[in-house]
């Protein structure tokens, strides 16, 4: 049975994949909430497949394990000989990256990715329907808090604070709420 | 001269030394060469690499070792790569947890602390084939600490290092600015050495692309390289760096006070300075020295990432595109050195001049 580890350190609901993968006959052996736990779990639990959000900063930890340990899972990428290109394209479309140990059959990996993709597509639709309003409200709160911080610490007017956030979001190709979240986190860090 | 492509997407990681990309966009060097740049911040080096290979990024700010690791297929995809120029020297640091401040003020002090410790210390870096791994390993070994046996080493995303030090999960790390500066501001750690103390004027980030992109877009590649050489020259003018601080802070999403001191200090004139150099006296920083590329290969051999000696010069000549750089240097009016090899003396007093990489790689007593 394929042993799978899920990395759950981003907004993508990878943890919710667990039930779907188990139902499809895979064993989800662990979930890693961050880079440090991830390194330890890969060494101790030896998963066959690691599923991680393409946007996760923890990917470089998996790269380290792949270089330093021949038995560790390796990244599956577009141009590798072992991966079926359709599988990889599906993974990329779902925003998912897979790391796989040597010897896992491509069709088995394809099945895992198909489950992940279906789950995320479904989740996407659900979220759009149910949580859209809720999310917008949460984002508005974040943006208001970040605006307040900018007004407070840099003596900006509300309009200037919003413009600063908006410009930064545009230049970095990020969502306004994400820029606000980072600003709040950094302000907490620096006191 | 016709450009094969004029709108380019460049990847970068949230580090102070992404500055040349930001300046080339803001100060119009790219535009003057017919290029429109879109800068795309990346969540990890692995994702930056994958997007470069998939063609979603045209070129990127990359750790020197990253294109070399991909060229050799170390632990991941194997793909023909191109280094177009060096974006900076220096500007990285090794930081330790605040609790060690009283007892550890040098590499020798760290060795004594490791001997005395009742547990193994854990030190982090940023990418397996990257520069920070190699600076950390080299510095530890120069103080008779074996990086693979005497300590745990692991990769932690730099923004997480501040918290990991504060929580006692990490004892130290090597990373690019502003992260060593960030732990000092958060008072969770202190900077013990700047990377310039390990190798004065060491190569750091490069402008990387795939060989396929460089070969099918030679005029675009040359124009982009010329624009970035000009941005580097602009950055090394003492009066101008300050002007770039808010742009860099915005591009990487941290407050200006994390960027400014260590970008401006000493203007990257080497020594103990934490600042990066971008251009140097005559553009020597930008030149893609073959000896710089080969050095990373010697260290991969030393630490067991390579289990045999590669043809060092052949790999460096394939990756570092001197042909394209020469054209770009002509456009940007920069002198070229007489030889593609340079002499460096590292912290342990060893000379590296690229003349016998195989012997150099084999000469270290502390190795994998």
Number of domains of chain B: 2
Provide the helix percentage of chain B: 40-55%
Q: Which class of the largest domain in chain B in CATH terms?
A: Alpha Beta
Number of strands of chain B: 14
User: How many alpha or pi helices of chain A?
Assistant: 7
CATH fold type of the largest domain in chain A: Rossmann fold
Specify the structural class of chain A: alpha/beta
Shape of chain A: elongated
**Distinct helical segment count of chain B:** 17
User: What order do the SSEs of chain A take from the amino end to the carboxyl end, as H and E?
Assistant: EHEHEHEHEHHH
Q: Look at the helices and sheets of chain B and give the structural class.
A: alpha/beta
Main sheet attributes: strand count, strand direction, barrel closure of chain A: 5 strands, mixed
As a percent range, the share of strand residues of chain B is 15-25%
The side-by-side strand order for the widest beta sheet of chain B comes to: 2-1-3-11-4
**Low-confidence regions of chain B:** none
The two chains with the largest interface, and their residue counts, are: A-B, 38 and 40 residues
CATH architecture name of the largest domain in chain A: 3-Layer(aba) Sandwich
- For the record, the CATH architecture of the largest domain in chain B stands as 3-Layer(aba) Sandwich
Largest sheet of chain B: 5 strands, mixed
Average of per-residue pLDDT values of chain B: 95
